[in-house]
Amino acid sequence: MSYIVAEQERVCLPIVGSEQSFPVGRVYCVGRNYAEHSIEMGDDPERDPPFFFAKDSSCVVPVPLSATTSISYPMATEQFEYEVELVVAIGKGGINLTMAQAKEAVLGYAIGLDMTRRDLQGQAKKKGRPWEVGKSFSESAPISSIFLNEATVSERLLQAEIGLKVNGELKQMSCISKLTWSIEEVICKLSEVFELRPGDLVMTGTPENVGAVVVGDEMLAWVEHLGEIRVRVID
Q1: Global pTM?
Q2: Which of 123, 131, 198, 215 shows a CA-CA span of 20 to 30 A to 116?
Q3: Where do runs of H (alpha helix) occur along the chain?
Q4: Whose CA is closest to 50, among 72, 67, 30?
Q5: What value does the mean pLDDT of the chain take?
């Protein structure tokens, strides 16, 4: 096939312990899926159902588990914020999935950062406009290699610690068990409004204490049993 412009390069994430890669399709994000973060952002975690927004696949930055990766401070913002998240890689698609089917849909897990231009997001929210300007921009989704979903990994993640440090100072700390909506519930709800496809990623939400970073800051993000990633902000 002949294209009138150059075809955009597809983003792929490595699979831990394999020579195969995961071709990234769509990136779905769950808003406010930890109770304390919901309260922090002015919502009622007992009342509000999960809601979703998306990042373009081109936002994804593969981050090796053994090295520091740099991302650029983005244009048009003065409030560039971190959100550490457990990321789920979808291996089987479908619509209106049951809980059992949602569990089977999970190919693996990764560590991710939902980087946010918070000032732009806030402006959009006040006017009732979409969030893309604050969420879906270049290098806004640094994500680790994917750990395949084995029974031991899945079970251990239920009680896994999730956290983030900036320049060695602890900023976020919680447990995956504190998700308001479980991984399977999130996938079920998502499949009620979108047809999920193999290659999709789901960022499952962030704990409380999100905050800003500036040029020169280094973030250390981790999910217990999956390891850690280091991401430095450059000019």
Answers
A1: 0.95
A2: 198
A3: 35-40, 99-105, 118-126, 132-135, 151-157, 183-191
A4: 30
A5: 94
